[in-house]
From TrEMBL, chain A:
Top-rank taxon: Eukaryota
Keyword Transport: yes
Protein name (database record): AP complex subunit sigma
Subcellular location: Cytoplasmic vesicle membrane; Golgi apparatus
Keywords: Cytoplasmic vesicle, Golgi apparatus, Membrane, Protein transport, Transport
UniProt similarity note: Belongs to the adaptor complexes small subunit family.
Length: 145, 927
């Protein structure tokens, strides 16, 4: 399952933090910080996975992708496919891109509500529900009609 | 920083322009807030800005009649503030209120805020349950969806029953979006509390045949988790799942499920994961899968990321289920491709896949040695760690030295305690199991202690001390004493380094105490001086002091026994003086013991603290036979014979029956207070147990002090001697036991693993050394490239060692020797696969032509049965039953030839892959 979805900028400011497990706000902050330190030191060509046993418990991994000023991070356990999630991040970003027409960091800050709706259409309760970008755009537009 | 701020400013300009569009635009204030936070030069400034924002929100949110749109914005700002790490709990109630709103967007915003703010046990949840219940019944499917999303986050075990009936109802909702989300919500409940939804398993399986594939794929997520918990109830689904996978692979799902032209990759991956679980250790189920797995290996596109994701998953499934040699061969090829890739992600997956493969075919690691070494030396930490993982799995006696060296090097360079602990425990495990020599083992342990220090469990220290004490466990005393003096030498060297961890110092103290002066090259004064230095580096460490005092005691005793006089150096004297008044009773006791020992005469000392006897067995005379003469003389003098507790109870019972006076008094005995023990002068007391017993004052006393001896543990860390036992008789008595030195307790340790490990490690050691001398260096027959550095080749040779034949034989021999040793990681667990010759019964055929596909594909047969009778296809008879019976029907099916023909017809007619949702999609499958 997916334990959390985080979007943060390259300075470590969280832009979206969604946890699918109950965690106290303090713990959430700590996780965001730890994830950021884990990622910021990694070079561009390194692999997109980081083992996160210490942050999230045994067997968990961070799968992340770096776009311009943002990191998109999915925290997963062994029930998900690392490479698959990498493509799911792509789906997420592509969807945001088609909704916001050339998405940038501030779109995500100001349209928090909408970004969350997009994510809710893709991931629900820690499970992937939809992977088709067009379908997601369709249902999000339906909601915001 | 300034660059990104510029970027942000630019986009803010764009945002302002967009702001006028209304719906998306947030208010100017929010823009301002984000902008100022973005420009904040320090954390403190940011803090100030956010606190000011919180104050203003607090004020405004409580104003009467805030317009609903405005309120929504306030709440979003609260979410933003909380995401930055500040408390926004004052606004939670307003978010809860917003969920009651009739406007869908506002309601959704309310739900969103609530799911982000509250966890499932928050008090406010109770106020939302009612709203959720109402929304689940709403006519507007979007409202239903919003409520279902909220349910996943907000409902806890106690509140599940409140919403469960509505959600079960939604499983049959006309919109597939709602059905899908209802499945997800139920899945969530299963994770929370499996018992609440266990009665719904049939309903889940029914949804597997939903006419919309997206609902089916939602069910797969739930199935995976359920099967993870218990495989048994789902075994019958194998045939259906295989056929779904087959359809996906053959591109028979609607086009909208394609991702980058790969057919339904996410469905494929999930199914492969499920099949891996179902096929584990189940030959029949696995054989069902071989066909489709072979198909996937052939069809998947290895140039795209998602194609590789499927391939990897397939390899993973193949290594979990019952072995099929030919498919494993293909899996190995794919793994090779991953490892050779330049893409770090694929390398990572390749290393992982290789780790799975070598469990079944250990020899396949050899082909990839250079790729593995490349990964090991990669600057990417994730890759390096994964590779160390792999090396750990393939460690054998012949490569343990190189691998352990790598691991030690790795932990030396990281600061992360978590991984330090984990990897050092692996180093210890490998060293214990495969150590080529004791010398090497001690060196390795010293390194681990030095680097990981107090992260290492105490047991490891004890094992190390025991190893030094016991040596090779054979009669070769010379080798043992050489080992010990080299250990002493090594430790004296290590002591020169600053800041050693306590646990290493403990080991050092013990070794110096036991063997410091054994080979005569160091004087007692020198060793005692060193011991005092150890204490000086860690003044507050009582446990360490305990080790040091015992060590000094032993050295003084050895010297005295050898007829020398020991002059304590001033530091030592002051150290000892201090301990007389120590707060630790354990330390006090030790120092009094020390004092007492020093006053004894030479012979007594030699018998209570003999040289090099730490691993002699202690024989506890349970019958107390040495007391016999004392007892006899006491009986002769008219004492009453001793009665055990039980006997006395029995007597008590008899008393009432036979009113026996004697018995009455004997039962009374138990309540008598013990006499005050008389404390003899320490020096006067004779020390060996047998002597002491004759001096004993009365029976009680003997009894109690004997108990003290046999129960009190003298291991330094367990100071089980309580205050009341701090009597000098007891103390001396303990020393009186010839070999009752602290560490002698270790062999009594109930965990015998270390025992066997030791035996095996020494055995392994010999083997390895003999092999090292005889084995030729690795011949590089498979190395592709010429310009590989000699160093790497050397490393490869030492890692992957000699060829498979040899490595196979050796570990097997080793395994026999250490029957009790636990896992043997590189050993195949499933029946070994004969490599080249394909077994005749192999179900898999990789050649593509249709007629060769085994005609026992149950679902195809079912499909054509149904497609012949078109009325059956549209009839609404129970779908589930048919699916679940698919397997049975198949075996009863018509002749393979006919069915194959019909099958191909049905494929052309029934299932043309078309865009959009095909309502008949699974009809050909399930009727």
């Amino acid at each position: 399952m997916i334990d959390a979805v985080l979007v943060m900028n390259t300075q470590g400011k969280p832009r979206l933090a969604k946890f699918y497990k109950s965690l106290s706000p303090v713990k959430q902050q700590e996780i965001v910080r730890k994830v950021y330190t884990g990622l910021s030191s990694r070079a561009e060509h390194f692999c997109n996975f980081v083992e996160a046993d210490e942050i999230f418990g045994a067997g968990t991994k961070l799968v992340y992708k770096h776009f311009a000023t943002l990191y998109f991070v999915f925290v997963i356990d062994s029930g998900e496919s690392e490479l698959g999630i990498l493509d799911l991040i792509q789906v997420f970003v592509e969807t945001l891109d088609s909704i916001f027409k050339n998405v940038c960091e501030l779109d995500i800050v100001f349209n928090f509500n909408k970004v969350n709706t997009v994510l809710d259409e893709i991931v629900m309760g820690g499970q992937v529900v939809e992977t088709n970008s067009t379908e997601i755009v369709k249902s999000v537009q339906e909601i915001f009609k | 920083m300034s660059f990104t701020t510029m970027e942000q400013l630019k986009t803010i300009g764009r945002e302002l322009a967009m702001g006028s569009q209304g719906v998306w635009g947030s208010s100017k204030e929010f823009l301002e807030l984000v902008k100022t936070i973005g420009e904040a030069k320090s954390k403190a400034e940011e803090e100030r800005i956010v606190l000011a924002e919180i104050e203003s929100l607090k004020r405004r949110i409580q104003e009467p009649d805030v317009p609903r749109k405005k309120m929504k914005e306030y709440i979003m700002r609260l979410v933003y503030v909380e995401m930055l790490g500040h408390d926004a709990s004052f606004g939670y109630i307003h978010a809860v209120k917003m969920t009651h709103d009739d406007n869908l967007l506002l309601k959704r915003s309310g739900y969103l805020a609530v799911t982000l703010f509250l966890n499932e046990d928050h008090d406010l949840i109770i106020l939302i349950i009612n709203t959720i219940q109402k929304d689940l019944k709403s006519d507007n499917y979007l409202v239903c969806c919003a409520a279902l999303t909220a349910v996943c986050r907000l409902i806890n075990e106690e509140t599940i029953p409140a919403v469960l009936p509505q959600i079960v109802e939604l499983l049959n909702h006309q919109k597939e979006l709602v059905r899908k989300k209802a499945v997800m919500a139920l899945h969530r409940f299963f994770q929370r509390s499996p018992s609440t939804v266990s009665h719904l398993f049939p309903a889940f399986q029914e949804r597997l045949c939903d006419r919309d594939p997206s609902v089916m794929s939602a069910v797969l997520c739930a199935l995976y988790d359920m099967i993870l918990v218990n495989v048994k109830p789902f075994k019958h689904l194998v045939a259906s799942l295989v056929s779904i996978l087959k359809q996906a692979v053959e591109h028979r799902l609607p086009k909208s499920y394609d991702y980058h032209r790969t057919p339904a990759p996410f469905v494929q991956i999930k199914l492969l994961k499920i099949l891996a679980l179902l096929g584990t250790g189940d030959k029949a189920a696995s054989e069902n899968m071989f066909n489709v797995l072979g198909d996937i290996l052939k069809r998947s596109d290895s140039t795209s990321n998602i194609g590789n994701a499927i391939l990897y998953e397939c390899v993973r499934t193949l290594t979990s289920i019952y072995t099929n040699p030919r498919l494993l061969q293909n899996a190995a090829e794919i793994t090779a491709k991953f490892l050779k890739s330049d893409n770090h992600n694929l390398k990572y997956m390749g290393i992982d896949a290789l780790g799975r493969l070598i469990k079944i075919t250990p020899e396949c690691a050899e082909n990839h040695q250079l790729a593995v070494i490349d990964c090991l030396e990669d600057p990417d930490d994730t890759l390096k760690r994964k590779t160390l993982d792999l090396l750990y799995k393939m460690t054998k006696a012949n490569n343990v030295e190189v691998i352990v060296e790598r691991m030690v090097e790795y932990i030396r360079n990281i600061s992360d305690n978590h991984y330090k602990t984990e990897i050092s425990s692996r180093v210890i495990e490998l060293a214990e199991r495969y150590a080529p020599s004791n010398q090497w083992f001690i060196q390795t342990m010293n390194q681990v202690f030095e680097i990981a220090g107090d992260l290492v469990p105490q047991k490891v220290a004890h094992d190390l001390m025991r190893l030094i004490a016991e040596g090779a466990g054979e009669e070769d005393e010379d080798a043992d004493s050489h080992l010990r003096s080299s250990a002493v030498q090594a430790y004296l060297q290590i002591l020169k380094e600053p800041k050693l961890p306590s646990i290493l110092l403990q080991v050092i103290s013990w070794v110096l105490g036991e063997y410091g002066i054994a080979d005569g090259s160091h004087s007692a004064e020198f060793i005692i001086g060193k011991l005092c230095d150890i204490v000086a580096t860690r003044p507050g460490d009582d446990k360490l002091k305990g080790y040091v005092v015992s060590a000094i005691t032993k050295i003084c005793a050895f010297e005295k026994a050898a007829g020398q006089t020991v002059d304590l150096i001033p530091e030592c004297v002051s150290f000892i003086e201090e301990l007389y008044a120590s707060h630790s009773t354990d330390l006090q006791q030790r120092i009094y013991e020390f004092h007492a020992v020093l006053k004894l005469d030479r012979d007594t000392i030699a018998s209570i603290l003999p040289m090099d006897a730490s691993c002699e067995d202690i024989e506890v005379d349970k019958d107390l036979s040495f007391l016999n003469s004392f007892v006899e003389s006491a009986l002769a003098n008219g004492s009453r014979p001793y009665l055990s507790d039980n006997e006395r109870r029995g007597m008590g019972a008899m008393t009432t029956l036979a009113s026996n006076n004697d018995a009455g008094t004997s039962s009374l005995l138990r309540f008598q207070p013990y006499e005050k023990p008389s404390i003899p002068e320490p020096a006067a007391a004779l020390v060996t147990a047998s002597h002491y017993s004759q001096d004993a004052i009365d029976q009680h006393d003997i009894y109690s002090s004997t108990i003290t001896v046999s129960t009190s543990s003298r291991a330094p860390e367990s100071s089980s001697n309580d205050g009341t036992r701090l009597k000098l008789e007891g103390v001396q008595k303990k020393w009186g036991r010839p070999t009752y030195t602290p560490e002698a307790q270790v062999p009594k340790n109930p965990i015998n693993i270390s025992d066997s490990v030791k035996v095996s490690s020494s055995a392994a050691g010999k083997e390895a050394s003999s092999r090292n001398s005889s084995a030729p260096p690795y011949t590089e027959r498979k190395q592709p490239s010429q310009e590989i550095s000699a160093e790497k080749k050397k490393l490869a040779a030492s890692l992957f060692g000699s060829k498979a034949g040899e490595t196979k034989a050796k570990p097997a021999a080793k395994l026999q020797q250490n029957g009790t040793s636990k896992k043997a990681p590189a050993k195949p667990t499933s029946p070994p696969a004969p490599a080249p010759a394909p077994p005749p019964a192999d179900l898999l055929d990789l050649s593509d032509s249709l007629p060769q596909i085994p005609s026992v594909d149950p679902v195809d047969q079912l499909a054509d049965l149904i497609s012949v009778d078109s009325s059956a296809a549209t009839s609404t008879t129970s779908l589930v039953e048919q699916v679940l019976d698919a397997g049975k029907v198949a075996t009863k099916g018509p002749s393979p030839q006919a069915s194959l023909q019909k099958d191909s017809v049905s494929r052309q007619v029934g299932v043309t892959p078309s865009g959009g949702t095909n309502p008949d999609l699974f009809k050909d499958l399930f009727g």
